[in-house]
Amino acid sequence: MSSWARVYITRMPPVSSIPPRLCLGPGPSPVPPRVLAALAHPTVGHLDPAFLALMDEVRDGLRHVFATTNPMTLAMSGTGSAGMEAVIVNLVEPGDRVLVGVNGVFGGRLAEVARRAGAEVTTVDAPWGRTLDRDALAAAIARTAPHVVAVVHAETSTGVANDIAGLADLVHARDGLLVVDCVTSLAGMPVEIDAWGVDAAYSGTQKCLSCPPGLSPVTFSPRAVARLDRRRTKVPSWYLDLTLLKSYWGLERAYHHTAPINMLYALHEALAIVREEGLPARFLRHRAAHERLPMLNAIAAPAGVDEAAIRRRLLDDFGIEIGGGLGDFKGKAWRIGLMGHGATPASVDTVVAALRAALA
Amino acid sequence: MSSWARVYITRMPPVSSIPPRLCLGPGPSPVPPRVLAALAHPTVGHLDPAFLALMDEVRDGLRHVFATTNPMTLAMSGTGSAGMEAVIVNLVEPGDRVLVGVNGVFGGRLAEVARRAGAEVTTVDAPWGRTLDRDALAAAIARTAPHVVAVVHAETSTGVANDIAGLADLVHARDGLLVVDCVTSLAGMPVEIDAWGVDAAYSGTQKCLSCPPGLSPVTFSPRAVARLDRRRTKVPSWYLDLTLLKSYWGLERAYHHTAPINMLYALHEALAIVREEGLPARFLRHRAAHERLPMLNAIAAPAGVDEAAIRRRLLDDFGIEIGGGLGDFKGKAWRIGLMGHGATPASVDTVVAALRAALA
Q1: Is the pLDDT of residue B175 over 90?
Q2: Contacts of A5 in chain B (CB under 8 A)
Q3: Residue B343 exposed, middle or buried by CB count within 10 Å (0-12, 13-18, 19+)
Q4: Separation CA B145–CA B97 (nearest Å)
Q5: What is the pLDDT of residue B1?
Q6: A290-294, B197-201, B322-326: the lowest-pLDDT one
């Protein structure tokens, strides 16, 4: 073990040697100093009364950004993909019919997670970069009477926003539940869980909330909770089982698992910033940044350009992170995110100037 | 929305109003200022070369504390219970026989997670507060030829340590895999994954590593990886699927999910502190603290004493957190943890003096 230890000691530079970056990729977005300071507040216990009060406030703050009064609104102890999995495995039982709208990576991931939960999955596909076709969704719902219909609000892989309003009526008419992926949209554009009749939604903290990644806000309507209460089988994941978790986030405060305390501090501060700015002003700010650079989020790389080399130059020479393409767009596109703290005119000017210089 | 917003604004005190606590419960343990400072380092992208280099160092640091050369050693993006679930759902397929040693809450949780993964579960039980009986384990292994045998190294619910050395021979003789829960033991007492022949182990960051909760270190032996590669069915959890995750932690660096960047900064610093102190010195420090207070971790509350009221007094009057009993011990015991940064003579003196005063 001694030679091992020696090798090891020679190669561990401190975390502080990681250079600062302007995060204009598909996430994480830039995290404000106030949120980082909250993250570093001394850790207390997950059953400490002061921490439980903070959890109540986080829940209130999440209800505010989701525009819902759903009692079952909380932050799952994992990143956005854990929230996706939590929603699916809690609401789907083996053999259930699940309809998924797919026009990018994350719709495809939803379908895969539902299949692993034992669902009979039908997809309604649209080309990458296009929105889902409402008539095609309506026809598929009428034909398959799905237990769950799941769509992505804002596809991080393409930058396309699917329209959610009006969809719930079609889903509820066949007694289904509407699930919406709000990972990239939450706190950056209007998300109206109650007004739209959405039954379950999940998000991530590292997009328009401008908080580090590590938690997944989720919300479940009373109809979704009733479905959960009627399950014939146990939720396959113990860690994500909301029938157990609701005792910790609810009145009983029963221990389930040790919550990621400091991450919840950070989310609390991020939600306080959202509250101070106000959602309408925040949505306008995001919209204004996007209008200054209308080809966002996905930009086709010019023919003959090595897109990865340009991204690496942006990072090394300018300290700016932007994203590469995923799936069908791999090697062909960039993804520039102007989310949360990064949705400013200065971010747009900076990334445009850097791209121009890198391509010159 | 306006009245809702008003109500909301009146009740959100800052995170900084959470009082400092001396965390001497069953976890989280006290987090050193250096680790909190690392946690607050500015967030960069999860595919940033500087961050990927840090992940390599985290992996090296985890191999060091696990005493293993296992290539598949990483931190799962969830708390310790997510690590437990990750190990089980990756190594168990529906219909597999799983044998679990149960002498506390966490052995029971292992059995439950394995059942949800579709396993035929047999348990070998011991009374709470006693160690597992090796002969009983050997007989059950011989009888059931389990695909997986899972035991808890140090039962957080009772403070009992089960002996692991020698167990692998019995398990491997029937071609099984040995899984060990190292949540409370890792970096506080010797854990010898390779020397003991353990095939998979998981831990948490908030115990003897003295890092905030939110990540779960895991390690898999080449035998365990071979089992994973031979699976006939997909891993039921997409989020915890190591066949996908190993591409992100491995050479390909393929995007799977957005890692909890800042939590990994903190774990990196916590592992650097472990390296500086040295594992042998760290184990001695933990042992010395425990020997000064030999009734640790679980203490029976004196008859007639309201154990919850005493815990509340410790918290409110002394700023000290200790834990209550779980399961069979609920309402009857306290759990005092002297882990990581908290395993010091000063912690022992402080908690003993406070308990004496609270009980007077």
Answers
A1: yes
A2: 64, 275, 278
A3: buried
A4: 8
A5: 38
A6: A290-294
State chain B's mean pLDDT as an integer. 92
Checking phi first, is residue B197 left (phi over 0); if not, alpha (psi -120 to 50) or beta?
A: left
Same domain, B228 and B320: no
Q: How far apart are CA B119 and CA A79, in angstroms?
A: 27
> Same structural domain for residues B39 and B24?
no
Shared domain check, B221 and B255: yes
Q: Cα A97 to chain center, whole Å?
A: 24
Residue A291: Cβ within 10 Å count = 10
Task: State yes or no: pLDDT of B4 exceeds 50.
Answer: no
Flag whether pLDDT at A1 surpasses 80.
no
Cβ-in-10-Å burial (0-12, 13-18, 19+) of B88 comes to buried
Q: What's the ipTM?
A: 0.94
Closest CA to A211 of A312, A360, A119, A339: A339
Q: Average the pLDDT over B287-304 and give the result.
A: 80
pLDDT digits (tens, 9 = 90+) for B236-274: 999 999 999 988 887 778 888 899 999 999 999 999 999
Neighbours of A74 (CB within 10 A): 25
Single out the residue in B208, B243, B270 at which a domain terminates.
B270
Residue (of B41, B55, B39) closest to B245 by Cα position: B55
Q: Which domain holds residue B288?
A: 13-32+280-359
Chain B nearest C-alpha distance from A312 (Å): 9
Q: Do B36 and A43 touch (CB under 8 A)?
A: yes
Mutation for A interface: B41, B43, B215, B269, most A CBs within 10 A: B43
What is the predicted pLDDT for the residue at B64?
A: 98
* SS3 of residue B124 by DSSP: strand
Q: Which residues of A are less than 8 Å from B273 in CB distance?
A: none
Per-residue pLDDT tens over the stretch A124-156? 999 988 999 999 999 999 999 999 999 999 987
Residues B177 and B28 both lie in one domain: no
CATH at residue B26: 3.90.1150.10
Phi, psi of B125 (to 5 degrees): -100, 150
Q: Which residues of B touch A39 (CB under 8 A)?
A: 39-40, 262
Question: CATH number of the domain that A133 lies in?
Answer: 3.40.640.10
pLDDT at B294: 59
The answer on A140 and A60 residing in a single domain is: yes
B174 and B50 part of one domain: yes
Exposed e or buried b per residue across A96-112, where buried means at least 16 C-beta atoms within 10 angstroms of its C-beta: bbbbbbbbbbbbbbbbb
Can you tell me the distance from the alpha carbon of A293 to that of A336, in angstroms, rounded to the nearest whole number?
10
Nearest-by-CA chain A residue for B79: A258
Judged by DSSP in three states, B116 sits in helix
Specify the range with the lowest mean pLDDT, choosing from A83-92, A319-328, B38-47: A319-328
In Å, how far is B143's CA from the nearest CA of chain A? Answer: 28
For residues A177 and A224, the answer to whether their CB atoms sit within 8 Å is yes
Q: In whole numbers, what is the pLDDT of chain A averaged over residues?
A: 92
Whether B78 sits inside 8 A of A82 (CB atoms) is yes
Answer yes or no: do B62 and B171 share one domain.
yes
Domains in chain A, number: 2
